[in-house]
Design a protein that fits this description.
The chain is an alpha+beta fold and 205 residues long. 30% of the residues lie in helices and 33% in strands. The protein is built from 8 helices and 9 strands. Strands 8-5-7-6-4-1-3-2-9 form a 9-stranded antiparallel sheet. A hairpin with a 6-residue loop joins strand 2 and strand 3. Helix 6 packs antiparallel against helix 8. It is globular and about 50 Å long. This is ABM domain-containing protein.
């Protein structure tokens, strides 16, 4: 499966006014070998944290792109969109188990970061997530964009990112009912939720 590069930062006033600034990254990465797509968006909850996601065919493709002398120019181009120094951005990489694009193409994308509890194993989380996702898909919740997916953070043992697509952030809490509660409880026995946000991703073109 492809590797997803994700970073977040405080959006500048220029980006808040003109979200198309996300597409500036395409000037650098669009011709890179193994580049697939880019998504940018703002967090729904605080309306000021920006998220940028780049999809690569593999980590090797990303590493070759970074080695290109032009790649540092991406940070320079993004400087107009960022509050602070773009050189200090923290980049994370996720290898999803299934195609993540249905979640990212939805009007709102749920991003839930989970850390395995001490003594727990990834197989235990997988044994709960897969059937829970099947239950959610079968329930036909309003505003839900199946299928959800999840993946491992590269180089960060026991850390996972779970994604789901929704029409709006308000549709997500409405899906927490007697049908899903037993599965959610099982998940919380296995992991700690590090963060849960919703992002209005748009594909950069």
């Amino acid at each position: 499966m492809p590797v997803i590069e994700i970073t977040s930062f405080e959006a500048s006033e220029a980006l808040l006014v003109n979200p198309s600034l996300f597409s500036m990254v395409l000037d650098i990465v669009s011709t890179a070998e193994g580049f697939i797509s880019a998504y940018g968006g703002l967090q729904v909850e605080d309306k000021k944290t920006a998220y940028l996601s780049l999809t690569w065919e593999s980590m090797e493709c990303y590493k070759r792109a970074v080695a290109n002398p032009r790649y540092p120019e991406m940070a320079t181009k993004l400087s107009a969109a960022i509050v602070g120094n773009p050189d200090t951005l923290d980049y994370n990489f996720v290898e999803f188990r299934k195609d993540h694009t249905p979640s990212f193409d939805a009007p709102v994308t749920e991003l839930c970061t989970m850390q395995l509890r001490e003594g727990r194993k990834a197989e235990e989380l997988e044994a709960v997530l897969e059937p829970m996702h099947n239950v959610i898909a079968a329930a036909g919740f309003s505003g839900f964009h199946p299928p959800p997916t999840y993946g491992d953070f590269v180089g960060k043992s026991g850390l996972f990112l779970v994604t789901s697509g929704w029409d709006s952030a308000k549709d997500h809490p409405a899906a927490r009912n007697n049908t899903t509660k037993p599965w959610v409880d099982k998940i919380h026995e296995t992991v700690e939720v590090v963060s849960l946000v919703h992002v209005d991703f748009h594909k950069c073109t």
